[in-house]
Design goal:
The protein has about 475 residues and is an alpha+beta fold. It folds into 3 domains: about 300 residues, no CATH class; about 110 residues, no CATH class; about 55 residues, Arc Repressor Mutant, subunit A (Orthogonal Bundle), CATH 1.10.10.410. The protein contains 16 helices and 16 strands. Strand 12, helix 3 and strand 13 form a beta-alpha-beta unit. Helix 2 packs antiparallel against helix 3 and helix 8 runs parallel beside helix 10. It is elongated. About 35% of the residues are buried.
């Protein structure tokens, strides 16, 4: 009888904190798209005799993330030097944390959607919890660009503040690992600890995987896959490595003989062995002599806990309770700009249907159609003003849609468009009565159908008025006047 094996997976997640300056100096923390080696100084370049100073804002953001992940924040923690030699690490060591990290012993609960059953009917979704071993702070290395036989070093990213989140080996499949990583990203964004922009490299993964006989508790030597920069790469790399380890088990009659480090070659869809796995001894950790221990006050931690927003899983449930679909709720939780605008409209109007129509239908649609980013979207305040204009009868729902599209396309404020283009809603009875009379004369077939009992025919007549008035007529009043006339 064949041995039943299970995958044992743990992750190390590096997330860039969204501070204005780097971890230990005052250099610009936004290096994306900047000319190489222009956001650097003596400190982040590791020049001798320079003294690092911890970024208070980075520490606070790491604390927010720790509390959101249910970790115990250690009242006293300190930085360590982690030694390794590579061209993009100018000082020859990384300032990290080892024996006394910022936080430890947390957890993150995430959802696994139901799998399709026979006949296409979905089963029950699952809830899974993965323990967090530790969350610690460190500075990032630079970036290497390999051009033929030459390698160029860009140190703009050197010194970027990172939080490293290490899990227990609680994940059992590549899909579980991806679902965990996606939920973690949503949490970090929700508490404003990181933008976690995958395109800009603000979130990266090292994934460790091993196999063991199902039902046993032994942890066998593992394969660590380095520097995965997308959820797709994470899932593909783990699936490939699991299959490779299963084949090795069959061929060799057991697990790996020792832990190894592999690299993921995305274009080839496979891993490549890099070296044997380093241990803490290889890094020669010792306390960072230039930075004293961090001592955190209990009152500060309690105040930070009080400022945390509702976390994504609870927020999703609240959105669904409003009437949103699970997919719509997930869209809001995955995109902070959309969520902020939706929440602003809903808070002001208490109308989730209006907020959903404006954000999840119209705004997303216009951004996609016109190839625009959230930078082109009206602000939350502008959305509130536009929603109030419709509620008060100042503009129609049709006009609101037109205004929003023009705002996305041009960057102009919605209320400016309404005023300058004369898009106020027509609600004056005397004016509308003239349009109703014209509509009756212009649509004799629809009027005849309506008189025979076909209620839907009235819609085409109202639509005619709306078209002729460029959406400015009050559709409710037009309908009311048409019924009176007939």
């Amino acid at each position: 009888m064949p041995i039943e094996l299970e995958a044992i997976i743990g992750l190390e997640v590096h997330a860039q904190m969204n501070t204005k300056t780097k971890m230990f100096c005052g250099c610009d923390n936004d290096a994306f798209g900047k000319p190489p080696n222009t956001t650097v100084c003596e400190i982040c370049m590791g020049h001798p005799g320079t003294l690092p100073v911890p970024n208070k804002e980075a520490v606070l953001k790491a604390i927010r993330a720790s509390l959101a992940l249910q970790c115990t924040v250690n009242r006293e923690n300190h930085f360590d030097r982690k030694h390794y030699f590579y061209p993009d690490l100018p000082s020859g060591f990384q300032i990290s944390q080892y024996d006394f990290p910022l936080a430890s012993k947390g957890y993150l609960t995430f959802d696994i959607p139901p799998s399709p059953r026979v006949g296409g009917v979905g089963g029950e979704g699952l809830e899974k919890t993965c323990r967090i071993t530790r969350l610690h702070m460190e500075n990032d290395a630079g970036k290497l660009s390999h051009l033929g036989a030459s390698t160029l070093c860009d140190y703009n990213r050197a010194g970027t503040p990172l939080m490293e989140i290490v899990t227990e080996p609680d994940l059992r499949s590549s899909d579980e690992a991806v679902r965990f990583a996606e939920e973690l990203r949503r949490v970090l964004i929700a508490v404003n600890a990181s933008e976690a922009d995958m395109f800009k490299g603000m979130m990266r993964f090292d994934a460790s995987i091993s196999l063991r006989e199902k039902g046993t508790q032994k942890l066998n030597p593992r394969s660590e896959i380095k520097n995965l920069n997308s959820f797709k790469a994470l899932g593909r790399a783990l699936a490939y490595e699991e299959n490779r380890l299963r084949k090795l088990w069959e061929d060799d009659g057991g697990p790996l003989k020792g832990s190894i480090t592999v690299g993921w070659m995305d274009d080839e869809g496979k891993t490549r062995i890099l070296r044997s796995k380093e241990t803490a001894d290889d890094y020669r950790y010792f306390p960072e002599p230039d930075i004293p221990p961090l001592r955190l006050e209990e009152e500060m931690l309690e105040n930070t806990q009080k400022t945390l927003p509702m976390l994504p899983r609870e927020q999703r449930k609240a959105y669904i309770a409003m009437g949103l679909s699970p997919a719509e709720a997930l869209t809001l939780m995955s995109q902070q700009g959309l969520r902020e605008r939706f929440d602003a409209i809903h808070t002001e109007t208490a109308d989730p249907k209006l907020a959903s129509g404006m954000i999840l239908t119209q705004l997303i649609g216009f951004l996609n159609v016109h190839s625009k980013t959230m930078a082109s979207a009206p602000s939350s305040e502008e959305f509130i003003a536009l929603a109030k204009a419709e509620i008060s009868g100042r503009i129609s729902s049709h006009a609101r849609k037109e205004v929003l599209e023009k705002s996305v396309m041009t960057g102009r404020a919605p209320m400016e468009i309404i005023e300058k283009e004369g898009m106020r809603q027509i609600s004056d009875d005397s004016v509308l009565e003239d349009w109703v009379a014209k509509a009756i004369a212009a649509n004799p077939d629809a009027i005849a159908s309506f008189k025979k009992g076909k209620e839907a025919a009235l819609g085409s007549v109202v639509g005619w008025v709306m078209k002729q008035t460029r959406g400015q007529a009050n559709p409710g009043k037009v309908t009311e006047l048409l019924k009176k006339k007939m």
